[in-house]
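To fix ideas, we reproduce below a protein record of this kind.
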Amino acid sequence: MTYKTVLVILQSHADARRVLDFALPFAGREGSRVIGLHAEALPIALASPMGGPSADFTILMQDESRRRHEELRAFFDERAGAEGVMHEWRGFDSASGDAAISGIESARSADLVIAQQNDPDADSQRVADVEALLFNTGRPLLLVPYTFSGRSEPFKKVLLAWNGSKQAARAAFDALPLMKQAGKIEVLTVDPRDTLEQDAEVAGAAISAALARHGIDVTMRGEQSTGLSHADVIANRLADSGADLLVMGAFGRSRVSEFVFGGVTRSALQSMTVPTFMSH
C-alpha cells in the first residue's frame, strides 16, 4: 500500500513553500498524485460614506482574491512540475477563506492529507482549521511543523504513541506504509493500566507483534509520567530516541472539546517538533 492521492492544504503564500518542500519530495517517493488546495474568503460588501454599497471596493477585493489564487496556483504548478509529480489544482471561494474547511470533501477521497501545523504568531487569515481535517474527514493527516526547513527525506525511525484506543489503532495502520519504509519503530506507552483485556506489564505487546509481522524492527518502551503530562513524556521521548516521525491517535471532536478535556492531541498540534501523523 502507498499513498496514491495526497491532498496538500495551502492556506497562504506564508506556508506554501514550506508545505511543498515537504509534500512534493514525499509524493515523488510515493508515486502520488498531489492535489493542491487553496481557499479565499468571499468579498464582503461594505457601505460607502454615502450609506450605499461600495461596489468599487468589492470589485477591488475580488481582484485581489483572484490575483492570490492565480499566484499560488502558478507557484504550485511550477514546483510540482519541477519535481515531476502528477498534480492538479483546486481553488475555492468561501465565507471563511479557510483552505482546511474548504478541503474537507476533497480530503475524504484522498489517501493522505498534508498541511502545516499552525504558527501561533501568524496572522489569523493565515491559520487553517486543521482540527476540522482531523475530526471531520475520516482520513489521516500528516502535519508539517511550522519550523520545518529544507526538503523532506525518508523517515528513519517512527515513534508510535500507543494507548490501545481505536484512534491509536487506526493511526498505526494508516501509517503502516511509512513504518515499513522506515523499518524501525518504537512503541511507547505512558502510564499503562491493568484492564480486563490487558495487563499493564505487556501494554503494547500485541500491536508490536502485529507490526513485526510486516518485517519491521519493533521495540517497546513504557514510561511513567511522574508528574509530567503525557504530552511532555512523548516530547521527551521523541528527543531522546531520535525519532523523526510521531504517529498517534487524535482525540476529541473539535477545538472546543479538546479545550474542555485537554489532551495530548491539542498539545501535539501546538508544540510538535517533528512531522506528526494523526488519525481519528
Notes: The chain has two domains: 5-144, 158-279. The longest strand covers residues 33-41. The longest helix spans residues 55-83.
